[in-house]
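no rush on this but wanted to send it before i forget. theres a chain ive been looking at and ive put its sequence and its fold in token form underneath. please have a look and point out which stretches look like helix strand or loop to you. thanks a lot i owe you, the record is right below:
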Amino acid sequence: MVYVKWTFLAVIAALVFSFFHYTLPQHDIVRITNTDIRRIDFGDNSIFWANPAPGTAEGTVGRDVHFIEAFRPNGKPIVYRNEDTGWGWPPYFKVDTSNLQAEARDLVSTKDAPQWVVVTHYGWRNEYLSIYPNAVGVRPAEGPDERIIPWFNIVLLSILGLVVLWIWRVLARFKEDRIEPLIDDAGEFIESVDDRAESVWRRLFGRGGH
């Protein structure tokens, strides 16, 4: 049972970590090399794409999606999709896809004269599943070694941690004040029933044994 308990807790922890890692904003320093629009037909990986933009016909299985192609300082390529999130999840309320695409196109540079850019995004890149992180912002970087501190993530996770700690303390106090007394009363009641049963047994059969 101990292994089952810890396995269950490990699975829950992994799911929570994956949720926040996918949803919270991340920052990459890259060199943008191209912007593109591609026709995408969605399949089993549709969960990793944004909902259709307002005005899109219902039942549409494919649509045009903006992409931003870039390279990291170590030379590895990275491709971002550029889709509106609207009022859906994650709650970035992004509705400026066209403006962001124009900003990214304006920051395109070459390997010989690089313009380093900070791309803010959420999501993952997986070649096997054909999924891409969704860019939500771009800005010029100070250089390829610019240090970025994710203050939003730190503050949000700290607040969530405090809320979880508060809920845990409330539940612990509720257990101590309400649940444990009931368990103690139930134990005392069971003990009293056992004592009475033993007393009755002795009265009925105790004398017959002498």
Summary: The chain has a mean pLDDT of 86. The two ends are 48 Å apart (CA to CA). The chain has two domains: 26-148, 157-209.
